[in-house]
Design brief:
single chain; globular; mainly alpha; two-stranded parallel ribbon; 205 residues
């Protein structure tokens, strides 16, 4: 769940906004989400707080996830899994990853009845989404460079310094995590790979 890029670029492409203004909005340090999702009445829709109704990181990555967890808790669903991210990237606004971490923190503290699982994969790619393939190739090169430095560039590269992961591999790991009651809290890239391997071995039996 969530968005990688906000919608500012559409206004620029359609000539409704200048390139400078679009970039300024895209990399703004603060933007509105919705009304406080924890105070939302049952059945009440989330209301975007940006004046043009823009889908922001705060709305999509944070408030929508919190709302779904809230509904899951109300319905006594035992487990809630949120696909977060391993980190940000130099080309993305910092709010991309902070909104996801805020979602994790709020869900964990506000809904203790749930077994919360927060998957933190690297960049996800799949051949069915062709635009992800060249990004994954660049990411693999970046990860190799980062690896040769012993991971010392992770602070600079964020998720861009971590080897991209195939979407269906992460999907298999998610199913494995849901079935294993011992899995809870943040699940990092290495643990995701281990869960996927476990699912693969089980499928071979």
């Amino acid at each position: 769940m969530g968005i990688l890029l906000e919608a500012d670029y559409k206004g620029v492409l359609q000539g409704r906004e200048s390139i400078y203004s679009g970039l300024q909005r895209a990399f703004s340090t603060t933007k509105g989400g919705s009304q406080n999702p924890l105070e939302r009445k049952p059945g009440e829709d989330l209301k975007p707080q940006e004046k043009d109704g823009q889908l922001t990181y705060e709305l999509m990555n944070r408030d929508t996830a919190i709302t779904l967890a809230q509904e899951a808790a109300r319905e006594k669903v035992p487990t809630f899994l949120y696909v977060s991210a391993a980190g940000g990237a130099p080309i993305l606004p910092r709010r991309y990853i902070t909104s996801k971490r805020e979602a994790e923190s709020t869900i964990a503290s506000s809904f203790p009845s749930l077994r919360n699982i927060f998957f933190r994969p690297a960049f996800l790619y799949d051949s069915s989404r062709s635009f992800t393939m060249p990004i994954a190739a660049l990411g693999s090169v970046s990860a190799m460079i980062n690896s040769t430095t012993g991971g010392r560039l992770t602070w600079l590269m964020g998720a861009g310094g971590i080897k991209p992961q195939k979407a269906d591999l992460v999907g298999e790991a998610i199913v494995e995590a849901l079935e294993d009651a011992s899995v809870k809290g943040p699940v990092e890239v290495g643990e995701i790979e281990e869960l996927a391997q476990r699912a693969w071995r089980r499928g071979m039996l």
